Every structure is written in C-alpha cells, then in structure tokens.
Amino acid sequence: MSDASRARLQQLFDQAIALHQRGALAEAERFYRQVIAAAPASAPARHMLGVLRAQQGLVAEGTELIGQALQIAPQDASAWVNYGNVLGVSGRLQEALAAYGRALKIGPRADAARNRGDLHLQMHRFEEAIADYSLALHLAPDDLEALNNRGNAYRALRRFPEALADYDRALSLKPDLAETLTNRGAVLAAMGRAREALDGIDRALALRPDLAAAHNNRGFALRELGRLDEALAACDRALALEPGNADALSNRGKILFESDRIAEGCEAYARAAELMFRAPAPPSGADMPHKTRHDAEQRRYLSELSGLSELAG
Fold it and tell me: pTM for this structure?
C-alpha cells in the first residue's frame, strides 16, 4: 500500500473516531466500513466497528467483529477489554472473565481489573471481586467506580468497616455520588448507626429522588429506628420506581411482619424469593456491571485513538 493510500485510510479512520466520539454512529459506521473494504486486515477498524455495533444493540455482530480484530492483533489489550464487555452483555460470563484475563496478561490495566471485578460481583464471587477491585485501585487509586463497588463487595460479606472506608474515600473525592451515599447509609444502618444513615440517604435522595435503592435503604434505616409506617412508605416508594426490586420486597416483608401484617409479609417474601432465585444480582445500590455505562469508558478510549497508525495491521 502506498504512503498516500495509508494516509487516506488514516484520515478515514480518524473521521470515524471523531464521529463515533460525538455519537454519530451511522456516519462513523460508514467510514469504518470504508477502511475495512480498503484494508481488510485493519484490526483497529474492525475492533471499533464491533464496539459501535454493540452500542447499536447488535451485540452478536459486535462480538464477532471484535473477535476478528483479535485474530489479526491478539496483543491488543483494549480489544480484549471490549471483547469482555460485549461477552458480558451477552451473558457469556466465563468467556468475558477469560477476555479480561487476557488483557491483564498483556499488561496491567485498571479497566480490565475493574470490569472483571464487576463480573465477579454480579456472580456473587465477592472475594474475587475484592481482589480485582484492589488491583484496579493499585493502578488507579482514585477510581470511583472501583471504590464504590469494592465497598459493595465488602458489604455483601458484612465486612462493614472496610466497606465504609471505601465509600468514605470515594465521597472524599466526589461528595455528590448518590449511589455511594446510599450504599454508605445501608452500611451505617447495619452497624447500628441508623440516624447517621438517614442523613446520608436523604442527601442521596436530594441528588437523585428517583434512586430506588436510596428509598429502600431509607426504609431499612427507619425500620431500625422503629418507625415502621415511614419505613413501609419508603419501601413502597422504592417499589413504585422498581417493581422488581427484590431487596425492597424483602425489606417490606420484614416491616409487615413486625407490624403484625403476616399474610402481606409472606406475600412480599414470596415475591422477593422468586426474583432472587431467578438470576443473581448485585447488592442494592450497585450499578449493573455491563449496561451501557461502558459508553463513558468508550468515549475516553475513543479520545485516545485519533492519530492511530498501522491501520493495515
């Protein structure tokens, strides 16, 4: 390929990246496909087209494209991370874990460690999640997501002082994290500090009135204080926002039992059990690990790609 042709392909790729970064996915797709048509061995273009197609909801096609890119460039750690992301979205959790492991073998990466921790958290492998988040935080000490989610893993293991320390560290870096404030409130309530818990949870609700986990955790704290009517109202608000919130249903059941409303309590527990045993879920207040929150991560990655050379692989 001549230097002029390479320069033209680089220009097309850079245009695709710029469009992708702005969210103009259809236009970006057209440029990626032009690069691939001219240079079929272009691993970066296949990789990023795969990311784009997954963002468009075509996860199977995105997975296939990123897999093709990795066959061309198996040492591309970023592609392995994105491969893990799309595999996780597809529910192929063991393969996703392996993909993150491949990225980490190529070199230490906070995103690979954090994302693998998210999967372990989703799978209720809390000790493994803590180890992954600890690696991520060793590499990026101010990673707010890793701090919050390691706190969630500690909380699931009832290691409350360690969870509280992680939440406090995250909030010292960014005080307006509503999810972390409500997670911290849940820990304080579990430690017998319900009044203090309410203060933090109410701060979370001032930031995010629609945060179901905060309403549920507020209900838990109010129950600890014996304020059962207010606690039940808080759980009902959580369920109005998220009817399938198993934690809120379970909490509601406890409150109803303590209010001598046994039949209603049994019904709430039965619904909670049905949801809990249907599929594993992260602790209340935790982010779902592989939803399109990865778009922010992709935007950061895209911003670094402009000027990428060796398009022909």
Answer: 0.84
